[in-house]
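W.,

You were right to be curious about this one. When I first looked at the sequence I had no strong expectations either way, so I just let the prediction run and decided to look at it fresh. Below is the sequence, 358 residues in total, followed by the output.
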Amino acid sequence: MSVLDLARPDIRNLQPYSSARMEAGGGQIMLNANESAWAPNGDGGLGCNRYPDPQPEALLQSLAALYGVKREQLFVGRGSDEAIDLLVRAFCRAGEDAILIQPPTFGMYAMSARIQNAAVIEVPLAQDFSLDAHALLASVTPAVKLVFLCTPNNPSGKSISRVDIEHVAQALAGRALLVVDEAYVEFSSQASVVDLIDRYEHLAVLRTLSKAWALAGARIGSLLASPEVIALIRRIMPPYPLPLPCVAAALAALSPAGQAAARENVAIVQGERAMLQSALGQLPGVREVLPSDANFLAVRFDDAGAVYQQLQQEGIVVRDIRRYPMLQDALRITVGTPRENARVLAVLNEIMLKKGVA
């Protein structure tokens, strides 16, 4: 059975849109796309009067080298969100098919499915936020076409072991596409599972430049999968998903100097994460600091709502994650610069002292 047998038949047979840039063929005088012949003021040589390459070759080569995949195993789009949306549209028929997720988890999996009118089957993580592989596999029905695993998990920060991921991949062969979201893997001591793509054609991996690579504003995300899955996704991608300035920013970040800077910043985050884990755990009013392999910490408070509001009053914005199952008393705090982290601790100390006086 081919992994494409899991995809929507109408998408497999769809004639993809052929953009003007795809048909350019390396011409010298470009008169096929109704573009302006003049670059805009302040363009700086980018050539923004022309439509960009839908999948820029230089960026594909840089990302393929970074992730250890072949060019044909890589799709680049507007953040991981776009890849999630395209996967759901390619594999899930409206009103018929489903995805499977393990809450608490990243909200865009369910959002994309509901927009597509695909069902969302939820199999909660265990109480310690580890994957319950047995319960997951027992809940996979014939309608399930996509199973999402988030590791390190957002919002808990816990990783899924490689052994568990491969166990699930083996069990899902011929049944569903397994999508492993590794948005935070650069901050983890656990390696990526991207090397398993060659072993399991129904395994896909999501990566992003938004976190460790400091390009959240550029919106560059990747889908790594078998050439067949990538070819299918390229059939339904928007004509020009990657703006030229964003591609330029990504190439600069992926240069040798950019990679060295990213590694230094990741090391700082890992050190600050350990410091915050310890310091937050000693504060009165803090019930628990969940272990994290990501660039954030989920922290349980006696009164998370009050702490959230008081931090905001001091100009500190954290993420209120009390709506997530098993996290009704928690806030998610991103690891910032050493100075920002020190300020957070100082404000929290002051908040807790005032509570103690009261």
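Here's what jumped out at me. The longest strand covers residues 144-150. And, maybe more interesting for your project: The chain has eleven helices and eleven strands.

Coffee later to discuss?

I.
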